[in-house]
Each structure stands twice: as structure tokens, then as C-alpha cells.
Amino acid sequence: MQPGEMRNKIESLIKELLAVMQVRKNYGPDHKLTKEAVGNLHKGLDSILSCQAEVTIGIVGDEFAFERQPFYEASKNMGNFINHLKELKIERITFLKGLSSKELEDFFGIITMDAVSMEKSGGIKVLAASVGLQFIAFSKIYLGQAGAAGEGLDINLTAKQNIQEGIDFLTRISEGINSKEPLDVRSAYFFVNKIIGNLFQNKESLFILTNIKSHDEYTFLHSLNVAILTLAQAESLGVKQEYLTEIGVAALLHDAGKLILSGEIINKKGKLDPADLEKIRLHPVDGAKVLLDSAEANPLGAIVSFEHHLRYDTQGYPQRIYGGKPNVASMMVAIADIYDALRSKRAYHEEMAPEKTYEEMTKMAGTHLEPDLVENFFKIIGVFPPGTLVELDNKAVGLVVKESLSDIKRPQIEVLYNGQGEKEKEPYIINLLEKDSESGNYKYSIVKSILLTDKYELPQKYH
Ligand SMILES: [Fe+2]
Ligand SMILES: [Fe+2]
Fold first, then answer.
1. Ligand 2 centre distance from Cα of residue 266 (Å)
2. In this structure, how many other beta carbons lie within 10 angstroms of the beta carbon of residue 3?
3. Ligand nearest to the CA of 284
4. Span from the CA of 227 to the centroid of ligand 2 (angstroms)
5. CA of 252 to the centre of ligand 2 (A)
6. pLDDT-based confidence at 174, cuts 50/70/90?
7. Which residues are close to ligand 1, an ion, with C-beta < 5 A?
């Protein structure tokens, strides 16, 4: 779709949005005309979401805007509507692929409320969660440092916001579990759908973020990374969106049982005593219980929690209580789980270099891990995943930015330092698949990965 064409579609969408508001106000939510207007809006959204994972409209100043470009014309007669949304503190509405007209109707139930009642009911996010909105999100417009209007939404930024939201979400459910509240699985669905949208748009940004990470809040970041790495596997296998969400939620909550354990045990340095070990070994079972006891029991989540340390050969823990191999979702989660654990610096071990991790996990194929899935996993993230700092055979140093589909050891690199160790003023991207036309040899190859230390400075966009 041409950019201009997209703008036209969004403009009609905004008009349809207003039409629903007006018809609903005059005739009520259940009237034929209201349903018809919602149906039209849904069709318009469907046609946009058939070619992209999500669409966001926002309010900039007193106008509706798409990618920060205001619609002056269309906003003219919408002053009341725009003010109403502002009163509700809604600055951005994101519609995700998979949205149903039922959910759209529920959405209008919320945004037609007045500000006072909304505040009393706990605010927009609480309401959205309580009616179960999964494919519509509300957020605030992020105005970069200079508040630069007209600048497109930064995709890295969306990925970063995604990670932060994930940590907030996990913090909330962890507090919930510890005060014995049932698990809020519903908001996990919503969050996972956002990761999926992000994954479809720009996998690399998410991979880079899972790779360049700070090491506090390990359990939460670990859960997020496992969800991202599992979703990437499932998506590459062609799993349909509705199941993708299920698998993503199960992956995100695979260690729900660990949230019950105290930070003391999880972050303990050196050897754990037998009592601690015993507690840790119970986390798959504890997690399965929590997931089954949640308001809406989550069977796949419970299975994945129960099986994620069982291993492909079922020789892991807890002891196997039924026949057959573990569920395919559990086996994808196990790969993501082990990968993230090896690659992370923990109280009791240093982080493992990616090439070494590849070697170790290839050895586990057939015993701990399902071999075809392991092969598929490294096809997706490569031996040197995006976000890895590497040294090339000409001594230049760069950051892996994109995997190669044909050779897992030859990704694309953003060169940051030249062979003399001097910082490149204008970093540039090379493709390691490129060959010298005369000799037919590869122009550059990776010698090894480098630990990201203070010695190296990454460009601002990766911070
Ligand atoms: Fe675990
Ligand atoms: Fe885990």
C-alpha cells in the first residue's frame, strides 16, 4: 500500500470512529444503526490490518494524527470528540490485527463514558482489562527529546516500551501471586499480542533488546526474553495468530512458580543447600497450580510450566507422570529458556558467549532438546544474534543487526570501530555473505564475539 493510500484509509477510519460515537449516543449501543456503524468501522480496520500488524492513531495538539502527521481537514468538525478523548487522558489508540467487532463494541462502551465515571472505575487501563480488551491499546504519545512532531514513531522505541510494559506487568502479577490473588492471565494476553505485533514489524529490535540487557530484575527479563524467543520460533513455523497468543502467554508465564520463591533463593551466590534446591525443583508444579487456579484457567500455560524442565527425553523434572513426549510448546519454551539462562550473567555464572552457547545447545539436541526445533531456533537468531558485538577478520568491531537466512554465521553487521580500533564517525552496514568478485572468497568473516563492556560505545539508538 502506498503511504498516501494508507493516510486516506486512516482518515476514513477516524470519520467512522466519530460516526459510531454519534449514532451510539443517539440510538444506544444495541440499535441496528449502531451495530451497522461499528461493522463499517471494523471493515475499515480489517482492510488496514490485512497488510500490517497494528495501526495507531493519536492526538497531536488539537488534531487527530497518524504517524505524527495531523489531519487538519478531518479534525475540523471533531473538536468535541478530541476534547472528550483528552479528558479521558487517551492520546493514542492502537488497534492490533485479530480485533473482532465484539471487542470494538466493548471499546465504545468505555470511550463513551464521561471522565468522572471513568476515574471512579479505576481509569482507562483498568476498564480495558476488565472488559477484556486484547487487541486495542491506549497509551500516551511519546514526544522524543525535542518533542519532534512530524517524526515517525521510532520502532526501537516501540520495542523498548514493550519491554518496559512487560516488566511492569510481571511486577504486578508477581505482587499479586505473593498476596494470593488469582493470576491476571487476561492482561498477559493483551501484552503478548503487542509483542506479536512488534515481532511482525521488526524482529531485530526485539532481539537486540533481549541481547543488550541490564541484569537486574532477572526473573522478569528472563520471562520476557523467553516469551519473545518462543514466539519467534512459533511464528517461523507458521503457527496461526490465535495459537501464537496462547503459546506466547504460556511462555511468558512458564516460571510463574518461581515468582512464589523468595528473591533470596533466586539470587543466591554459590551452591544452594538441599532445601533450597528442593523448593526450586517444585516451581514447575507450583506454576502449573497457579495457572490452573487463575480466574480463567490456562491449560497450555499449566502444561508448559509443568513440562519446561522435563527435557525432550523426559529425564528431567518433575518426574514424568504420563507417557509421550512433552508438548511442542514446552519444547520451544525449553529452548528459549536454556538459551536465555546460558546467555545471562547470573549470581553463580558468567554469561556464555553466543558461539559457545550454540555449540553447547547443539550438543543437547536429542537429549534435553528437540533436535529439529534447535536447528530452527538457530536459523532464526543465528549463531551471533542481533545485538552481539563481534570482531571481524580485519580487526574491525561491529554490532550484529540482522540475521542471514542462508548462513547462520554470516549476519549483517553495523561496523562501529575500524581495524585500528578507532571509532567510525559514520557507522555503516556490511553483509557477511558478500564475496570478493575476483577471489570468490568472503570479504569478511566473524572471528569471535566480544563481551559488551565500557570499552565500547554503542550508537545512541541502541541505548
Ligand atoms: Fe523454570
Ligand atoms: Fe525459565
1. 11
2. 9
3. 1
4. 10
5. 9
6. confident
7. 255
Nine-digit cell string for 450? 566480544
Identify the band that residue 144 occupies on the pLDDT scale cut at 50, 70 and 90: very low
- Euclidean distance between CA atoms 281 and 283, whole angstroms: 6
Ligand 2 midpoint to CA 341 (Å)? 7
CA of residue 251 to ligand 1 center, whole Å:
10
- Specify whether the CB–CB gap between 402 and 411 falls below 8 A: yes
Q: pTM for the complete prediction?
A: 0.67
Taking the alpha carbons of 276, 337, 219, 385 in that order, is the dihedral positive or negative?
A: positive
Q: Which ligand is nearest to the CA of 316?
A: 1
CB 337 within 8 A of CB 226: yes
Q: Which amino acid is at 273?
A: D
Q: Show the CA angle centred on residue 226, arms to residues 224 and 227, nearest 5°.
A: 65
State the DSSP H helix or E strand holding residue 56, giving kind and residue range, or none if neither: strand 54-60
Per-residue confidence band for 145, with pLDDT thresholds at 50, 70 and 90: very low
Q: Give distance in angstroms: CA of 308 to centre of ligand 1.
A: 6
For the CA of 333, the nearest ligand: 2
pLDDT in tens, 63-83: 888 876 778 777 777 888 888
Q: Are strands 446-450 and 423-431 parallel, antiparallel or unpaired?
A: unpaired
Domains and CATH numbers, the chain: 3-139 (no CATH), 155-381 (1.10.3210.10), 389-462 (no CATH)
Report the alpha-carbon distance of residue 96 to residue 283 in Å, rounded.
33
Residue 256 Cα to ligand 1 midpoint, Å, equals 8
